[in-house]
Structure formats: C-alpha cells, structure tokens
Write a structure and sequence with these properties.
About 40% of the residues lie in helices and about 20% in strands. The protein is of the alpha/beta class. The protein is built from 13 helices and 22 strands. The chain folds into 2 domains: about 270 residues, Aldehyde Dehydrogenase, Chain A, domain 1, CATH 3.40.605.10; about 190 residues, 3-Layer(aba) Sandwich (Aldehyde Dehydrogenase, Chain A, domain 2). It has a 7-stranded mixed β-sheet with strand order 14-17-18-13-12-19-20, sandwiched between helices.
C-alpha cells in the first residue's frame, strides 16, 4: 500500500501546517523514509484552542445518550477499517500485522465501553439534616483537554483519552506521535466520519516540548492527560500544577514478575515470554524483572531461553513474524547500552544481545541472568526485548525486590498457593497486579500506576472520573 502523508485535523478539517513544515516518517523495518507528518505552528495550536473552546460550549450540552450514539457509530467505522489501519500501523510502527489489527479492534471496544459509561455517569442525592433541603452531587465535564500520546500503541493510547473525554462531555486537542502518525490519524478520522462535530477532536503533531508549553498554560485547557516516560511526565505535571490543571499521568514501569517454586512453569514461561516480547518489549507494563524462586530457577531459565530463541524476528508484514523491529534507532542504541552495562557488572548473557543486520531497527530477543542491582537495566526501564532473570530464596526477599524501585505500574506473579496470592495482592506496591495470567489492559478494568509510574486510571469505571468536576447543589424548598 501507499503510506499516506499525514495532516493536522483542526475544527473538522484536514490541513497541512500553517508554515508548510513537516517531519519525516520512517519505516522501522527498513529505516527508509515513507512519508511526512505536518508540524504544527503556534498559529495552528491557537486555531485548535479556539475550535476546542467553541466546541465545548455545544458538545457539553449534548445529552449523554446522543454522545453515546455518535461514539458507537465511530467504533463501528473503526472496526470496518481495521484491516487497512493495521497495515498502516505495521508499516510505521513495526509490530506484526496481527498485533496491529488486534490493537485497532481493541480501540473500538474502548470506544464502546466509554460510550456506555458516559450514559451511567450518575450523581447522587445525599440525605439532608433538615426538612426541605435537597443535597445533590452533580458531575459536569471539566472542559477542553490537552492530551499527549506515544508511538508504541498509536491507537490504544490515544483512544483511551479521546473516548473518555468525549463520553464525559469534554472536547480534546491531542498531540499524536510523530513516529507513528498515520494510524492515530485514522482513529481520529473514524470519529469524524462517525459524526463527531467539528472542533470536538483536534489532532496536532510537532515538537513535543513546543506543543506542551503552548497548550498546557493556555486558559482554555482545563485538563492534561499524558502517556510517556516518567521524566517527561514529571515536567508536564509541574507545568500543569503551575496553572492548576487537572492531570492524568500514565508513565513508565519496570514490572517485576515473581515465579514461585510451586508455579506451573510451562504456563508461566509461555505467558511471560509472550508478554515480554510483544511489541518488541516496547510496552510500559511488559514483565521485565523476572524473580524466580531457587528450586524453579534453573528449569524456568532454560524454558524461557528456549522461548526467546524460538521467536521469529522480521518485518511485521510477514505473516510468519512474531516480533517486529524496534520503533527507531534510539531504541537499538539503548538496548546495546543496557546489555553492555549489564555484562560489565557480571551479568550472564543467555540469549540475544545484538542488533540484527544493518537495515531497519531489529534487535534479538535478549535474556540476561544473575544481573546485579548495580546494573542500569535493574534500575531503568529498558523498554525493549530484554528480560532479566534473577533468583530469590523466600517470599520476603521477592517482595522486597519487587518494591525496591520507584516504579509502580504493573506486577505479575505465578503461584498455586491461594495464601501467597492473597498476600501478594496487598504487598506489592503497584497500580496493577496480575496473578497466574496476563490480565491487564481490558477496557472494563482500571489501567494506571502509583509512585513514579503515574497518577489516575484510564480504564474501567474510573476512566471517566478524571474528566468530570464534582459539583454540590444544595437547595432549600420552603
């Protein structure tokens, strides 16, 4: 297929940037330039702000039921285009075609879920202390939203923000990912073709710092939602705080995966290897620090290494491929640096560890064992196809290591002991804990972290809460 050049979408229209500036888009499987994406100017951003301000005055007054109907239609448009969008996503992001299609279809499910939740955003009556007093708690949309989304899941990260905002009656300016702009643009196109009015969704691309520093302080914006690294998230949270803007931050992770002696090792290896190397490990909730109890350590390591070596790395358009390239050269260089540093600290390289070829951004599925805590990869999120497998003696040691870092996004555990499961759910400091399966990221359950991994949730019933103001209306009827 021919990769489309990507425009801005402002006030219901697709257009090039005001100054005609553009950013190159590369195919990570080849490293070749495949197109361009428009680079927004300040004038473009001001146009989007004015459109959002105007649209909020009408969209917020539309009934939840009418918003629901428009959103459900948009979801059906997205489903109908899933095959074409998946191919676009694979070309610009690299993930296997099956994963791209699944992401697109999951995006439609998220729209459906948020549309339904918008119909059920109930307030409440609070019993009064005096006759004639009625105390009502009412939820109102917070206002126009500025949202910033990354390249690793160009549809699913954007759709969580767009769908929740629209279902709550908010409007949104979304800064899409410059590395993977076309699939994000197709998501927005599905909403537009589904009947979302002009100005309700505005899509811009450009230099991230320039866009955030212009949008967040603007008085039109009342809410900020960001998915990305912890370092950038902290800067944006400080900027939002200076202007008293509400925030949702879904930031980095370094997920521990605890495997106890009594675990089903075959199931644990199959699921954890799949979770680790999906999307070439470029997932904030990917299991990364594998902590395996002593008796299970050797067999688990052997089985996991075999699973890593069995992965077929290649162009995501090849139906035989199970892991595509990394998204860009920076990730390849980061993987090389993490591996070299770990080996210099005494880690054992059990699989992979090298770039594949010199065309595209491919890297071997990598397994490191017995990695000391002094190594960078034990403390910094690798965000790539790198698994760390270390051993532990007892429950307390495992939980201590799981909680050692300031990250707290996701954690995993495998055990047959009901007692251990119950203890882990409370003991692990993480926004999400998945035991004996990979059960995260579904539309109907919360998705978010604690500590340096962020603030707020983007899934489940909690998804819409950050887009509402809670207002008390108390009245006396004489």
């Amino acid at each position: 297929m021919i990769y489309p050049d990507v425009s801005l979408f402002i006030d219901g229209s697709w257009s090039v940037a005001g100054a005609g500036a553009a950013i190159d888009v590369l195919n990570p499987a080849t490293g070749d330039r495949i197109g361009v994406v428009a680079k927004a100017t300040r004038a473009d951003l001001d146009h989007a702000l004015a459109a959002a301000d105007r649209a909020f005055k009408t969209w917020s007054k539309i009934s939840a039921f009418e918003r629901y109907k428009i959103m459900r239609k948009s979801a059906e448009v997205l489903r109908a285009r899933a095959d074409a969008i998946a191919e676009i996503m694979t070309i610009e992001q690299g993930k296997p075609l099956a994963q791209s299609k699944l992401e697109t279809l999951n995006g439609a499910d998220i729209i459906d879920w948020c549309a339904e939740e918008g119909r059920r955003a109930y307030g409440r009556l609070v019993p009064a202390r005096a006759d004639g007093v009625r105390q009502m708690v009412v939820k109102t949309p917070v206002g126009p939203v500025a949202a910033f989304t990354p390249w690793n899941f160009p549809i699913n990260q954007a759709v969580r923000k767009i769908a929740a905002a629209l279902a709550a009656g908010c409007v949104i300016i979304i800064k899409g990912p410059e590395e993977t702009p076309a699939s994000c643009a197709e998501l927005v196109r599905a909403f537009a073709d589904g009947g979302v009015p002009s100005g309700v969704i505005n899509l811009v691309f450009g230099v991230p710092s320039e866009i955030s520093e212009h949008l967040i302080p603007n008085p039109v914006i009342r809410k900020v939602s960001f998915t990305g690294s912890t370092a950038v998230g902290k800067r944006l949270a400080m900027l939002a705080g200076e202007h008293m803007k509400r925030i949702t931050m879904e930031l980095g992770g370094h997920a521990p995966a605890l495997v106890f002696d009594d675990a089903d090792l075959d199931a644990a290896v199959k699921q954890l290897a799949s979770g680790k190397y999906r999307n070439a490990g470029q997932i904030c909730v990917a299991p990364t620090r594998f902590l395996v109890q002593e008796k299970a350590y050797a067999p688990f390591l052997e089985k996991f290494v075999d699973a890593a070596k069995a992965i077929k790395v290649g162009d995501g358009l090849d139906p035989e491929t199970t892991m595509g390239p990394l998204a860009h050269l920076r990730r390849v260089e980061a993987m090389e640096a993490f591996v070299a540093d770990a080996l210099s600290h005494g880690a054992k390289l059990c699989a992979g560890g090298k770039r594949i070829g010199n065309k595209g951004f491919f890297f071997e599925p990598t397994v490191l064992a017995d990695v000391p805590n002094s190594a960078r990869t034990m403390n910094e999120e690798p965000f790539g196809p790198l698994a760390i497998i270390n051993r532990f003696d007892d429950y307390e040691e495992a939980v201590t290591e799981a909680n050692r870092l300031d990250y707290g996004l996701a954690a995993y555990a495998y055990t047959k002991s009901a007692r251990t499961m119950n203890k882990l759910g409370g003991a692990i400091e993480s926004g999400m804990v998945s035991i004996n399966h990979l059960g995260l990221g579904l539309p109907e359950i919360p998705f978010g972290g604690i500590k340096d991994s962020g603030f707020g949730s983007e899934g489940g019933a909690e998804a819409l809460e950050a887009f509402f103001n809670t207002k008390l209306v108390t009245q006396f009827e004489d």
